[in-house]
Design brief:
By secondary structure, the protein is an all-alpha fold. The protein has helices at 2-26, 28-36, 46-67, 78-102, 108-115, 118-130, 136-154, 164-185, 189-192, 194-216, 226-254, 256-262, 265-277, 284-306. The longest helix has 29 residues, at 226-254. Helix content is 79%, strand content 0%. Helix 1 packs across helix 13 (265-277), helix 3 (46-67) packs across helix 11 and helix 11 (226-254) crosses helix 12. It has one domain.
Length: 307
């Protein structure tokens, strides 16, 4: 009886951690769109907002990296560190740059649904790179997911804008890059440990982001309005640092499969927040499209567990 109670408590705590982490990640496009729409100060572009976010988050990730620097059981070869650098740059710098840039052109709800397709991208890339056969269930899941995106895309609030295709392609590329990162990181996360891997890769991405900013902008451009600075702090703390460690802690308690199911609430939260805070439309088409995407992604997860 005591063992069952302990297991139930662990499940509840782990699920709560994942829910909070998923909500944190879901607020990211909302905060970015609010920053882009700021009318009280100077305009902010994607790399400036990214630099502010990483400048605030970097000390935390460096502290975690130092705290866990002796936590690995294995010594790492030069190839391990090189792979870590490549994965950090692609997974957290390049994917973020494409995502932040895409949000300049499309709605927050559409962005979140496109990014949520990354499990389907993993299936497609695995089939391409490793010659893995796409099962019938996976094929149906892909069709449902992409049909849902097309439905939402067609009724997007910015559908009449000539740049919506550019924004959608940028976010799509972000999802593809992140899928490549997931495929590549599977081998190296166990070698470093999940906390060290996250802290190191995020620290590397932060340094590269700041270098990118300094190469093209003067430091004085970081002197943004108080409103944008507040949004950048919220972006760093509530949509970057806390979710990363909350999801990590949740996975340790309830496993990756359960975590993947629970994080499906992410797009729903984003659509609701976009409706309330950004006045984005939330009609039958958006709800139906989101349902198709969620169903497709869940089918992909179920097929992976079955395999």
């Amino acid at each position: 009886m005591e063992s069952r109670t302990r297991q139930r408590d662990t499940l509840l705590r782990g699920s709560l951690l994942v829910v909070l982490g998923a909500i944190g990640f879901s607020t990211k496009p909302i905060l970015i769109k609010l920053a882009y729409g700021d009318a009280g100060g100077s305009a902010v572009d994607a790399i400036t907002l990214m630099a502010l976010r990483m400048l605030i988050a970097l000390p935390v990730f460096l502290a975690v990296a130092l705290w866990h620097r002796n936590g690995a059981a294995k010594e790492h070869r030069a190839g391990d560190w090189a792979a870590l650098v490549v994965l950090g740059v692609t997974g957290y710098y390049l994917a973020s740059l494409l995502d932040f840039s895409g949000l300049e052109y499309i709605s927050a709800g559409l962005e979140r649904l496109i990014l949520f397709l990354y499990p389907t991208f993993v299936v497609l890339l695995s089939a391409l790179l490793y010659r893995r056969r796409i099962s019938r269930v996976q094929g149906i899941a892909l069709l449902l997911s992409y049909a849902g995106i097309l439905l939402v895309y067609g009724v997007d609030p910015l559908a009449n804008s000539p740049d919506i295709a550019t924004g959608a392609l940028l976010v799509l590329a972000s999802g593809m890059v992140f899928a490549l990162y997931l495929i590549g990181s599977g081998h190296f996360i166990p070698r470093f440990g999940s906390r060290r891997f996250t802290a190191y890769s995020m620290s590397i991405a932060s340094v590269v982001t700041l270098a990118h900013f300094l190469a093209f902008h003067p430091v004085t451009q970081l002197l943004v309005s108080k409103r944008i600075l507040g949004l950048a702090i919220a972006l760093a703390v509530f949509s970057t640092i806390l979710p990363a460690f909350l999801i990590n802690a949740g996975i340790r308690r309830i496993g990756a499969d359960q975590t993947a199911v629970i994080t499906s609430i992410g797009p729903v939260v984003t659509l609701a927040l976009a409706y309330v805070l950004l006045s984005e439309s939330l009609g039958p088409a958006q709800i139906g499209g989101a349902a198709l995407v969620l169903l497709g992604v869940m089918l992909v997860g179920m097929s992976k567990r079955a395999n």
